[in-house]
Design brief:
By secondary structure, this protein is mainly alpha-helical. 68% of the residues lie in helices and 0% in strands. The chain contains 13 helices and no strands. 39% of the residues are buried. The N terminus and C terminus are likely disordered.
Length: 266
């Protein structure tokens, strides 16, 4: 008879993994240690995605990107435990995403798919959708829809897709799709009560593309208010988006009277 899982031990191991992920990564081998921690608790793809996305972001913010600690060969190696392979892929692919290296991310996932002994997990496929969406490739929309059927309300996965729609400026109905995705319960900004500044930032950009400038300004002002005190990680991006919204609104207002006076339909 298999003994029951010791929940406190698993909770402690997960806490240790998260601490390693967000600590200053002075040890260049910390990605491998993190993979060992998560493998030890048999982390599923959702847990791996949550920890690895935060780890990749923390390392990048500290100036020690995962891209400088792992190589594509580390990610595509076939001689590792499947859980370890998935964790290293989540780390490396997340780092590529944060650097907007969409073509490289696309190629690496395609290599993974060829070498994989089993279907790629939902989060890895979401990162693949991001790479395609970020290049405004329409097939990214198809991959996104496939991922959404499996992702349920997993926030990290939905954030990856939202990021891709935000980056892909030339996608068919891209802004509208972004706004629709932001209404998912896990993101929940459409009710006007959302408190995730990143989601609000993406929504504001979509509203700007649709010419809904006042709504966009409301969203970006709410995003700024939702930042934790002293949080400078995305503050500059929010202020930049606010400036773009104001400039686009002013340009629209400046052009509208001219068109009306010249008889050109608006």
């Amino acid at each position: 008879m298999t003994p029951p899982t010791n929940r406190p031990d698993r909770t402690g191991a997960l806490h240790k993994a998260r601490a390693r992920a967000t600590a200053t990564p002075d040890d260049p081998s910390w990605p491998l240690h993190l993979a060992e921690d998560l493998r030890g608790i048999r982390a599923d793809w959702k847990t791996s995605a949550e920890v690895c996305a935060d780890a990749a972001w923390a390392a990048r913010s500290a100036g020690r990107s995962v891209l400088g600690l792992l190589s594509p060969e580390d990610v595509t190696a076939t001689n590792r435990n499947p859980i370890t392979t998935r964790i290293l892929a989540h780390l490396y692919l997340s780092a590529l995403r944060f650097d907007f290296r969409c073509p490289t991310l696309q190629r690496l996932v395609e290599q993974l798919a060829q070498a994989a002994r089993q279907p790629l997990d939902c989060y890895t496929r979401a990162l693949y959708a991001f790479a395609l969406l970020g290049q405004s490739r329409p097939e990214g929309l198809t991959v996104m829809d496939e991922v959404l059927t499996e992702a349920e309300e997993h926030p990290k996965t939905l954030h990856v897709l939202l990021h891709g729609l935000w980056l892909g400026q030339d996608l068919d109905l891209g802004a509208e799709r972004l706004l629709a995705l932001s209404l998912r319960p896990a993101l929940a900004t459409g009710t006007g009560t959302g408190t995730d500044p990143i989601v609000l930032f993406r929504v504001a950009g979509a509203l700007r593309r649709l010419g809904r400038y006042d709504e966009g300004l409301s969203a970006i002002d709410r995003a700024i208010d939702c930042l934790a005190p002293g949080d400078i990680s995305v503050h500059a991006d929010l202020v930049r988006e606010r400036s773009l919204l104001c400039a686009a609104r002013d340009l629209h207002q400046h052009r509208s009277p001219t068109r009306a006076s010249s008889g050109v339909p608006s």
